[in-house]
Amino acid sequence: MRFTTGHHAELGLAIPAEKIPVLITLYGGALFTLVTAPPEHVSAELVRSVAHGIVHGALPA
Question: The whole model's pTM is what?
Answer without folding.
Answer: 0.63
